[in-house]
Amino acid sequence: MKLCIDIGNSQIYGGLFVGDELVSRFRKITQRGASTDELGLFFRQVVRENGRDPGEVDAIGFCSVVPDLNHSLMNACRRYFDIEPFVLRAGVKSGLKIRYKNAAEVGADRIAGAVAAVARHPGKNIIIVDFGTATTVEAVNASHEYLGGAIVPGLGISMRALEQNTARLPKVEILRPGKACGRSTVESIQSGLYWGHVGQVREVCHRISLECFSAAKPVIIGTGGFAGLLGEAGLFSEVQPDLVLEGIKIAQEMNT
Q: What is the pTM of this model?
């Protein structure tokens, strides 16, 4: 049984794999000061609460965009599972050729998503859109070259920016509005957040497709927390919410 963990800026997202099947998922708010014991006890408890024996975990892999937590998490794996974890980072085997100017700058979660996307669609041109704290767009060509992409503020960041930097605009629920033309302040903010983000993603994907793939239409995969919501707008060829966890598992197996 494999435990795969994605440490994001806002949330820790994890899952348990039995063979190739993702049998359970969990989320935890990211706390940058979390200790080894806090993390270790949490992971053992969440495995147990999902009906599994923590002793059955025989491999752990993780990717992280929060360096402050890496040391605590690695020690938690060693102390509470007696396992040396696999860390997905620049330089490990991934099956990708990184064409970034500085490969070390590529976020580990972006690499994980690309690894899983290539496994699902080998020999295809692919764009991955990951809706996290930031919304990231990645391009991978049919030769499995990671070409780069774009990063824009995520939906949550955009909403908080409006709330914190204006005197009268409230925090709202992020959802697909019934109409683009809102008839209240709340409806207007929801419309702007949703359709503004849809427009951003559609334009970025279009531009990347033209630059990287000429006339060939790529497979466009949506993943991350808001992928299902934005998927209703017809942006994607498919939605795969667990793409990063799948990529961590595949990369861990490559490097074992």
A: 0.92
